[in-house]
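Researcher: Batch entry, complex prediction.
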Amino acid sequence: MATLDINNVVKQFGKVEVIHDTSLSVKDGELMVFVGPSGCGKSTMLRMIAGLEELTAGEIKIGGKKVDRLPPAKRGIAMVFQSYALYPHKDVRGNLGFALRHAGMPKAEVTQRVDAAADILGLGPLMERRPSELSGGQRQRVAIGRAIVREPEVFLFDEPLSNLDAALRVHMRVEILKLHQRLKSTMIYVTHDQVEAMTLADRIVVFRDGCVEQIGTPLELYRNPANKFVAGFIGSPAMNFIDADVINGNAIHASEAIASVPSSSTKDANYTKVSIGIRPEDIQIQANGKWSGTVEVYEHLGGEAYLHVLLVDKQTVVARADADSHYRIGETVRFNVVQSKLHMFAEDGKAIPKT
Amino acid sequence: MRNNPLSSIAIHSVLILYSLLALFPLVLIAINSFKSKKGIFRDPMALPLGDLYSSKGYQSVLANGDFPLYFGNSLIVTLISLVFILLLGAMAAHALTEFRFKGNGLLGLYLILGIMVPIRLGTVALLELFVKLGLTNTLTALVLVYTAQGLPIAIFIFTEFLKSVSGEIKDSARIDGLSEYRIFFEVVLPLIRPVIATVAVFSMIPIWNDLWFPLILSPGEGTRTVTLGIQQFIGQYTVNWSAVLAALSVAIMPVLVMYVIFSKQLIRGITAGAVKG
Ligand SMILES: Nc1ncnc2c1ncn2[C@@H]1O[C@H](COP(=O)(O)OP(=O)(O)O)[C@@H](O)[C@H]1O
Ligand SMILES: [Mg+2]
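Model: Structure tokens for the complex:
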């Protein structure tokens, strides 16, 4: 168990800088999730922590000790990969014990640790099988087991569930959460799936184009996104954005001014245009609603339903509707928005603080 | 997979036709090796039955005391070259695909350039070099030349295959604390085993069959290979055809045995990319 500190880390591949001056720290025993769209540098960051990529600049400390010159095996980390990365010619037992045997640990202790890990993950009946004889979920479990036996200070996961089908993904997600509660070790988990991030994380780091956009607990990110990117990335369905002009301190939506959103925060600054963010659940369909639009798509998921509403100026918003409701395509609906839950973003994407 | 019986028949007839075409000369060699010279010219297509049958060819091959030596030379040269081609080829391919360094792409291109430039073009220079090194009439000379000849295609095939293998398993081994050499021997080699068989078969046959370099670099009595040894039956005025054909039939055997050993792996290697396991 240990803390992890990343200080002013920069990474370049040739001339291309893929990680810009990044600093963050992970607390002891914390499950930190790196999330962001594909290609934003999450894996590169994780591989630098693991020692698989060299840093161009900056330093990385694990448990307060500088590790960025140490080889991967000496850093006290274990990593689980998306492709499982099992040794195809070794059986499950061989895969689990390989690192320990290689490090010269006595046989009895290896067996004991391997059996303990197999017990945690329910791998007992599979011990003599080769990876090719296992299902995807079982393979990933072996890969996690291989990390557990090493009793690392920090666990690193790089999109470990991305190759699994949806149902298994949900199941394994819960298992990883349980594992974290049981081992209480520091873990860093990389994913491009914000739902995975929200459900697993103690804290989330949102990456974009090699920069950290925001760090915070899932609820902090959900309730107070620092910018439009985070607001749009976290939450499903995504937050609606409506472009509005600011006139006399009021954000006027569309030239026809169908509705206005009073805002005190824009009064002081010289904003001329803002983007209003509204989460689908903060739109209330009401017969006497102030805003109106036509139903474009009606998605019913059983327990909940979503309406895609086409506004007069051709912008679409998604609203959560009552699961018992019925709507026809093309029907006109009226709605209100929960004023206190509105988000407002300046033209550069930064959130305008609520007052 | 479509299971149309008509297309299946068509495919199989083409395959059978091709097999017959390929086997024909081999069968011709085999049946004529059991005939006397007269028998060969009187009736080349007939089976060696009745008075056509003659084991003279095999007798003269076996009576020639040097043949075991020629066989030994061919085997030594082929096997040692093969080991070098496979080992060095796989190592080079691993380095080219795994490590980022300056000139990586150019080096890779340079290493596989030999596919397009036949090594025989350099025969004169090679001969000069070996004369200077005092390596003429040695098996070492042949091993060196054949290793150089086999490496480009081996590196090409290994590189292409390794590119398709996920790098994560090597990273995983690195985290497990393996040295780069142990990663190569314990992780990469087992991964490319099916391709090794493919490369082995493709490299082995031209080496075994080669007449050019033995003739030029090591024609000495003690270093002759089988293909060169057979030449003694081909005189300037008379050719002992029975003996030539008998020797050829015998010479095919070792390659055949090796092919059978590798073939199971070979088929896996050829289909490795196509069929997802
Ligand atoms: N070995 C490499 N050489 C050059 N560029 C790379 C290499 N690895 C990753 N990149 C680039 O770095 C960026 C970040 O990649 P990565 O960390 O894999 O993203 P993510 O894991 O967030 O999807 C991408 O633009 C990718 O093309
Ligand atoms: Mg990635």
